Amino acid sequence: MANNLLAGKRGIIFGALNSQSIAWHVAEKAHEQGAKFVLTNAPIAMRMGEINELAEKTGSKVIPADATSVEDLEKLVTESMEALGGKLDFILHSIGMSVNVRKGNHYTDENYDYTLKGLDVSALSFHKVMQTAMKLDAMNEWGSIVALTYIAAQRVFPDYNDMADNKAYLESVARSFGYHYGVAKKVRVNTISQSPTMTTAGSGVKGFSEFISFSDKMSPLGNADANACADYCISLFSDLTRFVTMQNLFHDGGFSNTGVTTEVIEQFGK
Ligand code: NAI
After folding, report:
1. Average pLDDT along the chain, 270 residues, taken 10 residues at a time
2. Cα 78 to averaged position of ligand 1 atoms, centre (Å)
3. In CATH terms, is domain 10-268 a member of 3.40.50.720?
4. Do the bridges between strand 36-40 and strand 139-149 make them parallel or antiparallel, or are there none, so unpaired?
5. 18/20 Cα distance (integer angstroms)
């Protein structure tokens, strides 16, 4: 459904690894809605090559950047403005990675070097992206910046491991930076707390497919998929949500406000 909601807008989309990635869906929809944008990912992810297919489909330039490197980010933001012909209206931060999760380390047995690496990639990078954009005066007024998060920032999901702490930090950065960017430039900053979604990052979590089914049964509307998440991102990049900022917005089919569902309770009567 193309309504030209993003006509004339320019942006940067982080995190499209493959066609399952939430960022991939956002890029497709942003293109449909008339936006121009640069696609970016860590240089190592580029080697997989799939992003070039998306770039071709959406007429976008690809600029590699490790989101933990301020130098890379400065280059990315500067070159994006040159390539797109002006300042930016939106940025999507769709990045997450925990080395402890990858290595199978239990939450009570973290390797702290891994913890710091995961925090840098998953959370501090959001601050770095915004600080870089602010210093380079790269955002237009009323621009919109969105990062993706998960409800494990508020409640315990044991296998989410140290990603829970990373997401809590990420959401806090959205509030704090959202304040400063709002005052300085009327730029809004929000996080979307998305249902579990079958992607490369998601499937790294232990017992993920069972968990997806549980979450689906615990959500009155069922799990929100990547496509629906992309729709929500587009609405936040559009001018229809100009006074929404510093929020953590649940996009989860009602999961976050549900104590239990009849369907789940019935499992215990069997
Ligand atoms: P994905 O694996 O497709 O995307 C994660 C992206 O992070 C990849 O493109 C990866 O290359 C990128 N990345 C990793 N290290 C990087 C670095 N140093 N610099 C730049 N990029 C880097 O998985 P997905 O699910 O699309 O993840 C996107 C976001 O959504 C993440 O923040 C994730 O935590 C969040 N999220 C995912 C959920 C899920 O169940 N899949 C649920 C809620 C939130």
Report:
1. 92 96 98 98 86 97 98 98 98 98 97 98 99 98 98 96 98 98 98 95 81 96 98 98 98 98 90
2. 23
3. yes
4. unpaired
5. 5
Distance CA 185, CA 168 (A): 25
Q: Which of 41, 42, 16 is nearest to 29 (CA)?
A: 16
Q: What is the pTM of this model?
A: 0.98
| Nearest CA, atom 7, ligand 1 | 95
Atom 44 (ligand 1): residue with closest C-alpha? 149
Question: For the chain, which residues make up each domain, given as ranges?
Answer: 10-268
- 17, 50, 126, 127: which to mutate for ligand 1, most atoms within 8 A of CB? 17
22 pocket-lining for ligand 1 (C-beta < 6 Å): yes
Residue closest via CA to ligand 1's atom 30 equals: 148
Check if 215 has its Cβ closer than 6 Å to any atom of ligand 1. no
What tokens were used for 150?
Answer: 């998960």
